Automatic annotation (TrEMBL):
The keyword Protease does not apply. InterPro entries: Aminotransferase_I/II_large, HTH_trans_reg/aminotransferase, PyrdxlP-dep_Trfase, PyrdxlP-dep_Trfase_major, PyrdxlP-dep_Trfase_small, Tscrpt_reg_HTH_GntR, WH-like_DNA-bd_sf, WH_DNA-bd_sf. It holds the Pfam family Aminotran_1_2. It comes from the Bacteria. It comes from Halanaerobium saccharolyticum. Gene3D superfamilies: Aspartate Aminotransferase, domain 1, Type I PLP-dependent aspartate aminotransferase-like (Major domain), Winged helix-like DNA-binding domain superfamily/Winged helix DNA-binding domain. The keyword Chloroplast does not apply. The lineage of its organism: Bacteria, Bacillati, Bacillota, Clostridia, Halanaerobiales. Its cofactor is pyridoxal 5'-phosphate. PANTHER family: HTH-TYPE TRANSCRIPTIONAL REGULATORY PROTEIN GABR. SUPFAM superfamilies: PLP-dependent transferases, Winged helix' DNA-binding domain. This is GntR family transcriptional regulator.
Length: 481
């Protein structure tokens, strides 16, 4: 059913027409129109109220920003159901995305590298070379799919890492979060079922929740998600996709085994679903040999692969890449264009130059050695400073995170609030799950801290932990007290 509106706009008013239309539509949606009702097509509504179609587009965009309507590519705009918002009470989601300035604190929450680690001089060289070469063309709009030379460079990068894809399958986007958001828009209708690892990345949960997806969780194990549990769900219901971080998963640090990767691909083929592989950390392996992505073994186009370098490069550049099946490309291009037309032209050209000059490989090699040293230091400090009842759940072979389990009677959220008061921040476990089963877990990240801060941070954590228990430091712990 398409709703019919009976109202007019005041063209003599000082208020712009699109704001008038937005407010009238907002009032109707909140008071009179049921969820999932289709709104009139842009041109029909423009004719009805006597305005330019661009006016309707602006009004619809404002409604979408307010989460009052949702858009289905090729179908139109619809009234959104009441939103269930995931919103932590203490603002740790801001820490997760590196949006709070913590210069006076020891930040064991941020997954973004410290700005001192950014390759500023090399990238400045790349930008200067591009400006000299391309002049004003460097600031022009790119095609929505991305700057063609960059797509060729990243295709070669993928091939060198065992991933074969055609050039037309590669889409440039403005960061991994935009990739997740756009894929949610083109793959999900409201209420469709998906599966995620538990725990998992908070930003992905937000994106899927915004589409009102029916989110099913499967628990993480030392070698990947519990695939027996996954198959139990698959036998009961059809899912649209499984979201996974195969290498050094956020927040657990788990690396999927090759055997489980193969099992997952077989399940995707048997039960007909896509796998979204979010890869931000596979480059940060600590052993001599690199880890395998799931996409390397994907022979049936089941894996939609997202690659971002934000955690090993410079997060503010907002660049990521998607490899997706050919049949999804038209919808993704349309959604990308509707979102921001294209990713930044100068950024794409400079990153292309940076890749072609071999500067990224050089930088990642340096980062790998640095973060391996930080990982070894943090694990050693935890073992020597913290009481035995605090456990590192999984031994990681790379990445930026340690996932710690506290005693069952310790609330990580309360511990976090106490820590902030003395200048220490970390990520409480409840942030990474729809359930509350990780209330006594925390994630520690060593991305944004130096070695001295790691040592001091673990000592501060020890201090607030004992104060929380009402005990003296090093007093023997008893869970019965």
């Amino acid at each position: 059913m398409i709703v019919i509106f009976e109202f007019s706009l005041n063209k003599e008013s000082d208020k712009t027409l699109y704001l008038q239309l937005y407010k009238k539509l907002k009032n109707e949606i909140k008071n009179n129109i049921p969820a999932d009702t289709k709104l009139p097509p842009i041109r029909k509504l423009a004719e009805k109220v006597g305005v330019n179609p661009a006016t309707v587009v602006k009004a619809y965009n404002l409604l979408a920003e307010d989460n009052l309507i949702y858009k289905k590519v090729g179908s139109g705009s619809f009234v959104a159901p009441t939103q269930k918002v995931i919103r932590p009470e203490t603002g740790e989601n801001m820490l997760e995305h590196g949006q709070i300035k913590l210069s006076e604190n020891i930040n064991l929450a941020s997954a973004a590298p410290s700005k001192e680690l950014f390759p500023v001089e090399d990238f400045k060289y790349a930008i200067n070379q591009v400006l000299e070469r391309d002049q004003g063309e460097a600031f022009s709009y790119q095609k929505s799919q991305g700057f063609l030379p960059l797509r060729k460079s990243i295709q070669k990068y993928f091939m060198n890492n065992g991933i074969n894809s055609s050039l037309k399958q590669i889409q440039v986007v403005s960061g991994a979060q935009q990739a997740i958001d756009i894929l949610s828009k083109i793959l999900l209708d409201f209420g469709e079922k998906i599966v995620v690892e538990d725990p998992t990345y908070f930003g992905a949960l937000q994106a899927f929740n915004s589409r009102k997806a029916d989110i099913i969780t499967v628990k993480m194990q030392a070698d990947g998600a519990d695939l027996a549990e996954l198959e139990t769900h698959l036998k009961e219901k059809q899912i649209k996709f499984f979201f996974t971080m195969q290498n050094f998963q956020n927040p657990t640090g788990v690396n999927w085994s090759f055997e489980k990767q193969q099992q997952l691909l077989k399940l995707a083929e048997e039960y007909d679903f896509y796998i979204i592989e979010d890869d931000i950390l596979s480059d940060l392996y600590y052993n001599e040999s690199r880890v395998k992505t799931l996409k390397e073994s994907d022979e049936k186009d089941r894996v939609i692969y997202i690659k971002s370098f934000s955690k090993v490069f410079m997060p503010g550049l907002r660049l990521a890449f998607i490899i997706l099946p050919d049949k999804l490309l038209p919808e993704l291009l349309e959604a990308k264009y509707a979102t921001d037309i294209s990713s930044g032209g100068l950024t794409q050209r400079a990153f292309d130059f940076y890749l072609r000059e071999g500067l990224l490989d050089k930088h990642i090699d340096l980062q790998r050695k640095l973060f391996r040293k930080k990982y070894n230091l943090m694990t050693a400090e935890i073992k020597s400073e913290l009481p035995a009842e605090i456990k590192v759940v999984y031994e990681s072979k790379g990445g930026l995170y340690l996932w710690l389990k506290l005693p069952a009677n310790v609330d990580a959220k309360e511990l976090y609030q106490a820590a902030v008061s003395i200048g220490l921040v970390f990520s409480p476990g409840y942030l990474f799950s729809l359930n509350n089963i990780f209330s006594n877990y925390i994630r520690l990240s060593f991305a944004a801290v130096n070695e001295d801060e790691i040592r001091k941070g673990i000592k501060l954590f020890k201090k607030i932990y004992y104060e929380y228990l009402g005990k003296e430091i090093d007093q023997e712990y008893s869970p019965l007290l």
